[in-house]
Specification:
It is built from 1 helix and 9 strands; from the N terminus they run E-E-E-E-E-E-E-H-E-E. By secondary structure, the chain is mainly beta. It has one domain: Phosphorylase Kinase, domain 1 (2-Layer Sandwich), CATH 3.30.200.20. The protein has a 5-stranded antiparallel beta sheet with strand order 5-6-7-9-8, with helices on one face. Strands 1-4 form a two-stranded antiparallel sheet. The N and C termini lie far apart (35 Å). Keywords: ATP-binding, Nucleotide-binding.
Length: 128
């Protein structure tokens, strides 16, 4: 195998990102230099997330499966693997920070980010 994510089962066997990458960002900074401070997003070790084979959705940017995280049912978005570059990872993190900065009681909550190149993902609130 080439190490890419073929099935959600493989999401449980990854090593965590380096300790210096556990917290992600101080908030979202737009091009004008303004900053909206948001709580830090957290890296989550793939081994702490149980990803089932229950498909919730699929799009051009990834596939969403039902999962479990800290005893709570969640949605796990697994970004479609590409030959990821550092720029791709930075864009993914920037998008997550931007989305996280907009969160309120009416938006889907992001519980954390998953990264094991070439696989990236987000742990999201499950909406039924």
């Amino acid at each position: 195998s080439d190490g890419s994510l073929d099935t959600p089962d493989r999401a449980t066997s990854a090593s965590p990102p380096p300790p210096d990458h556990r917290r992600i960002g101080d908030g979202y900074h737009d091009d004008a230099g303004s900053s909206d401070r948001a709580p830090h997003l957290q890296w989550v070790d793939w081994e702490h997330v149980e990803v089932t084979k229950t498909l919730l959705g699929r799009g051009s940017g990834g596939t969403v499966y039902r999962g479990m995280y800290h005893g709570e049912e969640v949605a796990v978005k697994i970004v479609t693997p590409f030959d990821l570059t550092e720029v791709d990872v930075e864009r993914f993190i920037e998008e997550a920070l931007w989305t996280h900065s907009l969160q309120n009681e009416r938006s889907v909550q992001i519980h954390g980010l998953l990264l094991r190149p070439p696989d990236m993902g987000m742990i999201l609130e499950l909406c039924e």
